[in-house]
Amino acid sequence: xxxxxxxxxxxxxxxxxxxxDLYARWAADPGSVDAxxxxxFEALDDEGRAAIADVAGASWGSHASLIGSDPAPAVSxxxxxxxxxxxxxxxxxxxxxxAADDSLRALAMVRAYRVRGHLEARLDPLGxxxxxxxxxxxxxxxxxxxxxCDRPVYIGRALADLLERDxxxxxxxxxxLRETYCGPVGIEFTHIQDPEQKDWxxxxxxxxxxxxxxxxxxxxxxxxxxxEAEGFEAFCQKRYVGTKRFGLEGGEVTIPALHAIIARAAGxxxxxxxxxxPHRGRLNTLVNVVRKPYTAIFSEFGGASFKxxxxxxxxxVKYHLGxxxxxxxxxxxxxxxxxxxxxxLEAVDPVVVGKVRARQDMTDDSATRRAVMGILMHGDxxxxxxxxxxxVLAMSQLIGYRTGGTIHVVVNNQIGFTTVSAHAYSGLYxxxxxxxxxAPILHVNGDEPEAVVYxxxxxxxxxxxxxxxxxxxxxxxxxxxxNESDEPAFTQPTMYKAIRARPTTRTLYAERLAREGxxxxxxAKEGWDGFQSQLGEAFDAAKSYRPNKADWLEGRWSGLRAAxxxxxxxxxxxxxxxxxxxxxxxxxxxxxxxxxxxxxxQLEAKAEMFESGQGIDWATGEALAFGTLLIEGHxxxxxxxxxQRGTFSHRHAxxxxxxxxxxxxxxxxIDDRQARIEVYNSLLSExxxxxxxxxYSLADPQSLVLWExxxxxxxNGAQVIIDQFIASGETKWLRMSGxxxxxxxxxxxxxxxxxxxxxxxxxxxxAENNMVVANFxxxxxxxxxxxxxxxxEYRKPLVIMTPKSLLRHKLAVSSLDEMGPGSFFQPVIGExxxxxxxxxxxxxxxxxxxxxxxxLAARRDKGIDDVAILRLEQIYPFDAGALGAALRSYVxxxxxxxxxxxxxxxxxxxxxxxxxxxxxAIGHGHARPVYAGRKAxxxxxTGLAKTHAAEQTALVxxxxxxxx
Length: 964
Hints:
Pfam families: 2-oxogl_dehyd_N (PF16078), E1_dh (PF00676), OxoGdeHyase_C (PF16870), Transket_pyr (PF02779). The chain is α/β, with parallel strands linked by helices.
């Protein structure tokens, strides 16, 4: 509607009617008006046309009554030809054009400030980063010289939120724009494609509302929060000189920002907040936001444990720990938790959003996803440098991973360790990656507390309104170096000279409030001294402080226990009628559902399996485990790349109607009272998605949560989550997880990248019964292992080397009875063939996984009856008792360990001494096992099919004793 605003406002009321008449003539015959008006008329929307109709008295007829008399023809300044209908009131068309041109140029300048104003914002509290003038923000770039800047220009409603009138001088317009877009706040929002979001943000920031929003009481609250933030750091600096704590000095305004976000969100319906953050400022956040007692923190500074004495575990440094609490805000109880995090900076991001998603699903917040919210805090260098940040952003609006928006708070120290921004990222801002998901970005000067708090509230409002991510970039500094014992002047002398000369944020704000008469200098000092006294009392009490309970088995974890060992055998069998009931659902699709013919044949085969009770394959065993858990009220969540169909086209958990793309999930149609299964094809991410599912499992121990790698080696891309969270999270942070990792593994000649799931890496991480690592050979054992995850009284991660070729192997099947009453999980499976008596057996081959079937086929083919084959199904925890029982009768046999993987990989180096210990315990004649397999290698497997086949044949022959 800009064209009409320009023309209608540039002239008098009568001239506006003339414009309406011109539009009517153009609408009837575009060639009947001067060509210079055509772009304006073509740009009109419905609102613009309605405005013309109002001017014209809702009629496109003659406007003689409005202008007094028929105007004389005017001469076009473009063509020189007479135009139908002159300019009323004696105003020339040239004057009208000049006025319209002024308005259009002014509006172009306004647009430039909205897009580029942040480039000249005063964001650096140190004043070292002086914005360079941008030509698009200079009125001269739009033809406005000094003589033009005091001339009134019509701008219509374009600056309604800035100026309460539709005409202003260029100087007035520029002053209003610079106050909004070039002050202590720089906002990036014009990259957003949604007009509603863009207009909402524009309305909320124009007029620089952060300058006058705070009442006297709100200003006192901000000062009090800054006093707590700075006071805590100052106290620690005096009491614990030289101790690393990664303090928040220079970025203390983050604490009021977090308070503002949480309080604002609570007022809009948020009842739970999960926070993830790096180590910088964690202790301050723990005590001042999540309300961990000061006494507890000071006790940990003194070397005490963060947990009661009767709780096992190694613990972690205090600036990696988390906690949770309930606070009263906006008349409601809000649960706030801070997740523990290793020094891998952004690694906690997907864990937090996964936990948020789980809590939403558990509390009936899955429709709107507004009652549980995640806050992720970042350093500037990590936000720009860590690819995981993008992976988490990329998940933010995906159906299987969205959480109603995450608020990202960047504590922008303008330096990463010793690296300045020019060396840390290629873009203009560390936050540029957030534009990939059209998140608004609010840059704000950290020494302007009221502006920071306003932007924090705005971020919370945006998240609650639109359910989308938003970024708050607090530009501040580090008063100390990377840690409290660092000397930053080695590498940044200029920056740290400015820092040493600059008063703290609290000092500056207290002085400002004293000038405003809000808080006197004496009152500010009294507040500081009182808080220091409070900390002193907590410090004295810390000497006798002992944590009296751990919170890790409360809430949804109530009824579970810490595991002292993993050798229990819960009942995992299921009644045959129940199994067949699930089977009926698996083999049935609705009428008029156009199923793919190939899948139809698979469903017919499934029906036959359940009718005969035989031939249950891997995918069906998995589905039976899922389905029986669903009937028992446990939700199931499976995600990963292409998991709905399965990488090897074996699962087909979600069926697609071939005529309309509709989806049907058989496992959600077993029983009216069942829980639901969710199977999500993930984005092409391992690090982010595995972290998400780990976080989900932390929040919900009663759901079976699984992540599947497209191939097992894809877990390489998520190694940080495996090492720092899955393997060690319980012992470091008292956080159990029942997450299941499905990693396709096996040597079928597919080359080095798709053979090995790196079994050896997982086994190297195994200790203290921290997780289960298995390489199953039967669907029944897989069935029992999955059900065991939720039938135990504790939770442990389960890592499964899942098969590829065995998915359709005729021998890799189970009977229904092996899952029915009386059946159970088998950590070791003994010999199944009718071979020679145990005394005559000359060799026992122990193996795990797919190589078993290669050995079995070769033995049968060669007619060998004096070699027994045992299967070690669960490698860790290593069940020495079960293996000893299976080996005991083979008193004369040589013991061989056979694996497909090279000697320096696989399970050999892990099981070698353990098998030796078992042999010693049972008094076996052979003290140690012998290795049979590929030679040590740098690459997991050959890429040549012929070489692979030769190697596989050789290792099988070696294991069976067919070669000398």
